[in-house]
Amino acid sequence: MADEKKLFKVKIDNISVEVEPGTTILNAARQIGGDIVPPAMCYYSKLQGSGGKCRTCLVKVTKGSEADPRPMPKLVASCRTTVMDGMEVANITSPEVQDARKGVVEFLLLNHPLDCPVCDQAGECDLQNLGYEHGADGTRYEFKRRTFDQIDIGDNIKLHMTRCILCYRCVFTADQLTNRREHGILGRGEHAEISTYIHKALDNDFIGNVIDVCPVGALTDRTFRFKNRVWFLKPVDAHRNCDKCCGKTVLWMRGDEIFRVTARKDKYGEVEEFICDTCRFDTKEASAWTIEGPRKIDRHSVISQGHYVGTVKPKEILTDVLDGRQPRLLMDIHSVSEVNRPEIDLSKIDGPAHSDDFRK
Amino acid sequence: MARKLLLDKAHIENIRYYDVYRANGGYAAAEKVFKGMSPEQVVEEVKKSGLRGRGGAGFPTGLKWSFLAKPEGVPRYLVCNADESEPGTFKDRYLMEFLPHLLIEGLLISSFALGAHRTYIYIRGEYAWIPDILEEAIEEAKRNNWLGKNIQGTGYDLEIYVQRGAGAYICGEETALIESLEGKRGNPRIKPPFPAVKGLWESPTVVNNVETLAAVVPIINIGGEEYAKIGIGKSTGTKLISACGNINKPGVYEIGMDISVEEFIYSDEYCGGIANGKRLKACIPGGSSVPILPANLLLKTAKGEPRMMTYEGLNDGGFVTGSMLGSGGFIVLDEDQCVVRNTLTLARFYHHESCGQCSPCREGTGWMKRVLNNIENGKGKMSDIDLLWDIQRKIEGNTICPLGDAAAWPIAAAIRHFRDEFEWHVLNPEECLKRNYGLAHYADPLPVPAAVAAAV
Questions:
Q1: How many CB pairs (< 8 A) connect A and B?
Q2: What is the C-alpha to C-alpha distance for residues B205 and B78, in angstroms, rounded to an integer?
Q3: B358, B255, B391: which is closest to B314 by C-alpha?
Q4: Where is the NADH-ubiquinone oxidoreductase 51kDa subunit iron-sulphur binding domain (chain B) (predicted)?
Q5: Which chain B residues contact residue A54 at CB under 8 A?
Q6: Are B177 and B207 in contact (CB under 8 A)?
Q7: At the topology level of CATH, where does A8-106 sit?
Q8: CA B160 to chain centre
Q9: Which class is domain B339-434?
Q10: Mean pLDDT of chain B
Q11: What residues of chain A have any CB closer than 8 angstroms to a CB in chain B?
Q12: CATH superfamily, region B18-228
């Protein structure tokens, strides 16, 4: 066909893919899928203008394009860099990228309270997953961490600014989804904080979506707060007729009780369709919903614990481990140690044994 | 006596006012342009001059102008970056304070060359008294038909607006400046798109430094080729250097880019040597964000040649043994100064000024400041020095805008060249509170082969 769009050939970690012009490197990688997809903490495909801030998705462009094969001098944010024809990108094959990413994760965790045991987001937290995959074992930061007071923004949302990584996703959500933006960023640098201008409540039908887009536990659902750990709940797909939104949600249930309602998230943690606050906060009777079936969670997070595909469990029984062989005595402690004296029989010593008894 | 192009008439009384400026050959360049030059010819002349951006990066101005997208029916803007907030740099303040009409004439010619009809001067908030000077000069220029509608009967319209910033260093970065000018939070934008394609109000925009735009006037007056004869190689023309620190004569100097650093520091025409008979220890030659150099590497390059005051000369040896001309904030440190303390001051500045948008800079600058604070106050550990090195390495190049690099470079250079002093602070936690490390070996001549080997 004459008017067929020309596709750009891109190579990411030596895997070729053809994508439409204007696609970002991150989205091209997502078309390939698997472990070469760079992690993204601030980019959100449904929110215009997001991305470029957290720097976890940095990749190395080893060849700019077919026309200009020079590599890019610095690592680039894959979520905001569009592909060129013939571009070659290194993500997991580049030690430089891995090193930079480890640095970024360390920076992100620097002022994070790491209060996962009491955080509602634990188990489905992007930062937790990122920390497991790319983080160091411990921190090198020896100073007091930055803290903020917790704020209730509206009746249903809690802002725990101490946990925030300033991805700006919620700011974009409030800006693009609701008709009146009432929150943004106050302050600068380390002291920057998400704020509803002078603690004004966010009163809007779609504002609850900021909870879903938040990659960490900074914005949590007050109707669910401290009620249950997410991995004890059973996620089911459900829908209802809603005049404000699509009504397609995930119910997090235990028995017949609905603990919370969220939007449906894909494998990159992005919601498929935004839902309204009535569905999210006010419809918690099982009778209001039509249940479709269990939700499959395919992220490497704690929610899917025990549901990993192809997990190899270690063998624990000795005979299995030894695989038919007999245990072999490698050495007798008495033959190498001078502390023990086997020729001295404790039962023949008069009274309790004393160190004098062992002297030669 | 070197040739002066920008400041040659700065000493004339009342040059700030239109009448005096006009009587002393002011607006002659604008007259020349309107009498017989097309916008393309002006751009060509600037290209020929080899003028490079005076704000710090040193990008060729003519080339930058030729990148400007020119779609039909979309306005183009010229923005003058007067948000001079780099510690140690105060050359633009001097220009605007004493020669406001030179800047306006430069803006007029540049706007004409770029086809802009609205031009903005984004001025640093702390320069509280200068917007009045500029606005008065704009008013005078308007009365004499150098601004406004149908300038000098050519049919060209131009308005210049002065916009004050609110005192953020980050707004000197061109995309943050544009955001701030649009009335938003001054966060740098993610590039691409570059301002030449989508800048102010989504329209093609050129952002240039005050000195760059002022330099357009002498380029038109004497011609691009004549201008290019001053200086060495790709560093053409004259450059304003704001010298400060422990020197006899701090101030703003205009140099032809053909003198050596040694001449600049020690000659009576310029800095006049180190104050109080002390010895030179170190120097930050281009504003706070460029790497600091010890005396021996400042005066001579690693190859043993004298270091010149040019873009290439100061950058000789890369960041291993060189530095940058940057914005021309020349900060001199004598033997009594403590490099650790100086680095801490800079780290504190960058921590304070980080916009907080991207994580390495937001978290890293504060971390570096705290670690340096420990070392300076005798609470540091030997491992802290390597930790600092690792932090700066992970910030540099991984951020949205160059502020991350600017925060990392001074710390990297201080550790690279002055590691002894950091170690001394760690090993002598009590003594370092009472006295400074002193000059040590930092002014000793370097054996040439060793220095070259170190660079490799």
A1: 86
A2: 6
A3: B255
A4: 340-385
A5: 358-359
A6: yes
A7: Ubiquitin-like (UB roll) (3.10.20)
A8: 23
A9: mainly alpha
A10: 88
A11: 51-55, 58, 74-75, 77, 80, 99-100, 103-104, 106-108, 110-111, 140-141, 143, 165-166, 168, 184-185, 187-192
A12: NADH-ubiquinone oxidoreductase 51kDa subunit (3.40.50.11540)
